[in-house]
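Just wondering, can you check both lines?
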Amino acid sequence: MKLHIALAFAATLPFAAYAAEKQAEKHAEHAHHAPHWSYEGEAGPAKWGKLEKEFGTCALGKVQSPIDISTKTAGKSSLGAIAFAYQPTSLKVIDNGHTIQANVEGGSSISIGGQTYELKQFHFHRPSEEKIDGKSYELVAHMVHKSADGKLAVVAVLFKQGAENALLQKIWDGVPREVGKEVAAAGVSFNPADLLPGKRSYYNFSGSLTTPPCSEGVNWFVLSTPVEASRVQIARFGAMYPMNARPTQPVNKRTVQLGGE
């Protein structure tokens, strides 16, 4: 009951006031945890590699994410379509101080190239960290998967402004007021497949985590067709996180391949 009252109150706050309140909470939270990293200032992306020894890859890595995808130079992938095997699941939502993250139970997975990856969680960035031909989108969801042998694959779902997104609304309504507290979205019917566009062609490349420690060896699949979210839904996330996107990184010698068509 207290959660619903708090969320109802949050919905009535002006976005600027709500953003200020959330940022104050995050600063207080981070004051008790080290190392602190951010998306701006002295702990911003340009300094990540020097904040901690284990963050060194953020500065020294050669296959870092995100990137600006060039459709003109993208080759043809031989991997075929991504086989999505997502199932209805319970949903646990957390504001971790850097983004809104939804943790899911086991049972949902993707398969591609002879490898199966289980969906673990998904989270959001504003604006989209990935760009396509220099264009960023209003929002992106990173759906993080892990194989049995520990390999990571991320499916990126881009959002543009348009109609209200029913699944996104369920997540926003489940965001706890307390930073760092995971809350189960009780009584909510949720299927990760509802987050996907109808057309699921993708841009595939080797990359990294987009947050410290920026570990490499991540298999990226950026879906080329965006889904929609309403202006109010986008603004609601922006009230909590006005900007939480790492700048694009050098492509270097990587090849980007278009697949799933």
